[in-house]
Amino acid sequence: MKETVAVAVAIVLLAGSLCAAQVVSPRVLVKGQIDTTDLKAFAEGIYQAAGAVTPRQKAEAIWRFFLTDGRFVEPGLWYHIAGWAYEEPGGEVLDPIKLLNSYGFGLCYQIAPLLQATYHAGGFDHARVWFLTGHTVTEVFYDGAYHYFDSDMLGYSVVGEGDAGNLPVASVSQIARDATILTGKLKSPREVDPAKVDYPWYPADLREGAIGGLTELFTTITDNWLFSGTRYPREHSMDFALRPGERVTRYFKPEDPGLFYLPYAFNGETWAEFPVEVPKYSIRTEDGPHSQRDGRRWATGRIEYRPVLSDSAAYYRGRPSQNDNLRLADPRRGRAYVSRKAGNRPGTAIFEILSPWVLLDAALTVDASIQDQAGAVQADVSTDGGVSWLKMGRLAGPHTGSWEPKIPVLQRSEHGVLTPIAGKYGFLVRLQLLGAGGPDSVILRNLEIVGRFQHNPRTLPALLAGDNDLQYRTGDSCRHNLPVPLDQLDRLSIRKEGIRRVSEAGQDILWPEGETGELVLCVSAPDNGALTGFDAGARFLDLRDGLAPDKLTAETRTTRVRVATPDSPRYASMKWSTSLTGPFTTLWEYSPAAMWPDGFTENQLLRWPEVDRTVNSVPPGTKKVYVRYALKNMGMDSVRLAARVPAGPYKGTVEITHVWRSDGQKREHKQRLTNTSNYQVNTGTSADIVNEALIVYCSPGRTNY
Question: What does pTM read for this prediction?
Answer without folding.
Answer: 0.95
